[in-house]
Model the fold of this input.
Amino acid sequence: MKISFTAASIGLLVAVSMLSPGTLPLTAAEASMSRTAVLQAPGKGTDATQRLQAAIAEAARRGGGKIHLSAGDFELTGSLTLPSNTALVGEGRGITRLIAPSGADFNVIEIEGAINVAVSDLSVMEASFEARKTTGRGIVINSGARDIRINNVAVTGFSSCISLGRNEEGKDVAQVTFRDCLVEKGRYYGFDLSLCRRVLLDNCQAYDCYLDGIKFRKRTTDITIRGGEASRNGTSRLANPRMNGNGVDGFAGGNAFLIDGLVTEHNQGAGIYIKTGPQKLMEGGIIANGMITNVRSRFNIGSGLDINRSKGDLGEGGEKFPLAGDMVVMGGVYEGNTRAGIFLRGRQITLLAPIVKRNEQAGIEVATGGSISIIGALVSANSAKEPGKRAGIELLGLEGSLNHVVIRDGSVNGGESTLMSDTNDLNEPEKIFHRTGIYASKGVRDIVIEGVDIRNYRGAKPTEITGQ
Done:
């Protein structure tokens, strides 16, 4: 049977860009992307799947092209698989909408092994997502796909809103950029990153996911989260107090990651949670070589930043994995969290000038590990839930030893003092929260404390060092 595609049958207009005199010749990829097919929204209650699939097939036959979707709703009952050198472009988030039925068992947009693909200016959503029963995903990028650009796209609902590299083939995804994207109300995760490298999330938002807003794990390399927000995630805890979810969760395999300028608030877990340990999907590994800079992590049910609290380094049957380590945390605000502002249980970690204040437990809590440096930290008014119970900085040496800790410069203030401009002095705080400035348990060895301004504590001494 011979099948032909016409403008009338699939509602598309093909426009081929012409070269003007003196311009450079287009590359094959550029030439293919210059061909545009325009599809009008068919209206409510009309299945647009075959029309879209036909337009994509025509683009594939021509070696690529741009498929432009008008404003309106495109209701789908099957997947759209984008080939190499294609772009799917709408009129804007919330203006052009790809709608899957509630509980969809298919992925709406699939990019499988393709190269040079773009999706922009549209929304992908379930018709109803409150039931959270879907097994399909909004956008899936798998099987060695390269050079993928997702810009100004919103995904609402689905099992995971956007998924990368979650396949059993062992082929990693690379060079993927998400810019100005919104994911929300995923049944598991907003962004689910596995088996991928050189991935950028630039000014993206992840809200109200059942578990984690942003998840990276299992042989992810060179993940960059720049700006944006991951807040109000872990809604599972609202139904089951034994569950939770984090703004960002790095689990069992993330190398050379950067989180810079992210806002993460009101999550039902930690703002940022980093942990090593086993991972069933093609095994896991350590998570290391991380940089966390200038984040604002506030009012989370867990800690603002939590490294290895979950004992993720302990596998079944007593198997052990290396602690997360080789990390730098620079600047940032860790405020008003239900647990510690920053919790560390790792090796070779440096905190440089974070602001840690008004957390319900200790400001900075350090447990098992070693080679920890805390330089220029500004710690104030922690132990907010039970004033006088916790210290500003606590070195606990849990489950073994904690060795080689340096705390230098900065301040630990048990109250909230205000600098008076006419005297250059700090006024006296109305309430003192810290029991002592710095506390170290018997499990801690080799502590150096230098140049730290410790003031406003309830105990007899600014420091309590019981192990030396």
